[in-house]
Amino acid sequence: MSNGASSVSNNNTSAANNQRQQKAKKYRHAKKKQPHKMKPHGERKSQQQQHNPSKQLEKQIKAQKKQQQSNKSPSASSSSQANGRTSSSSSSLISTLSKKLVGAKFRMINEQLYTTTGAKAKEMFEKNPELYHDYHDGFRSSIEQWPFDPVSNLVSWLKNKPKKLVVADFGCGDARIAKEAKQTTIHSFDLVASNERVTVCDIAHVPLPDDSVDIGLFSLSLMGTNFIDYLKEAHRVLKKGAILKIVELESRFVRFEPFKKLLQKLGFDLQSQLNPDHYFVIFEYRKNENRPSLDVDKIDPLSIMKPCLYKNR
Ligand SMILES: C[S@@+](CC[C@H](N)C(=O)[O-])C[C@H]1O[C@@H](n2cnc3c(N)ncnc32)[C@H](O)[C@@H]1O
What we know:
This protein is an alpha/beta fold. It has helices at 2-33, 47-50, 53-72, 80-114, 118-127, 130-145, 150-159, 176-180, 227-237, 257-266; strands spanning 167-170, 186-190, 198-200, 213-219, 238-249, 268-274, 280-287. It contains ten helices and seven strands.
């Protein structure tokens, strides 16, 4: 009996242990997934709120400039040669800190753009348009270090396409494609107009009629957590048989298969996939006869592409 009782109680204990182990495993798994799990904007404490490297760098730059001013003042006691040396080292420190500041601001805004919807990102830039320019200053210095410039690639690809084709550049940045490509009608859309070629809008809703575009382009602009809406919108405005070109960072894809399935469900046929330098991937699609399938709304965007987040340096 006692053996029996003990054995029941042991069974209970081992069942409870099993349950705890399962829970712990689940918890560990959930924790592992945390970095890619996105909370809606506003719910999560942004990196900016937790630790603001930009503010610290701004303070350091201010302090250095003040120091430089006081070194230049006639009351400073050291010789003019020593003063010259101090001033040049202080200038180079200010320039290093300023570069770091550009990078820190870029990383913060970049994270916001990848972890929120296009509508929220639009609100952010409406409240503070300076952020858009800070983002693009950092983005430009990133491009300079890349082995390949997506916009130049798209411009040379467009050289072989008829001039009369209507092009839409979704998330155009400073609309270099509209400036450099030969096509007469190039619609350039972005959240802020950095020049007169850009039309301000969220690319989930562009001011174009259905079936009106021959070539749609997304160059590194599938950023928002609702990027599937951007692709649906492209499908709406593209003519049947129109071309859709997408350039993205290869590192955003865990696998290409889910992305290709999504595009198929949206009504696009894959024409080609190139991976120059294995840094970028360029997809070329054609819009087919099918309407986008309703299941696409159930797809978790994170199962398709990860946000491109940079580490703080
Ligand atoms: C990484 S930049 C690339 C700019 C340009 N296409 C290029 O390749 O140089 C991405 C651009 O997409 C824009 N963007 C992201 N989400 C957007 C949205 N929902 N609506 C409009 N523009 C968006 C950003 O503002 C940014 O200018």
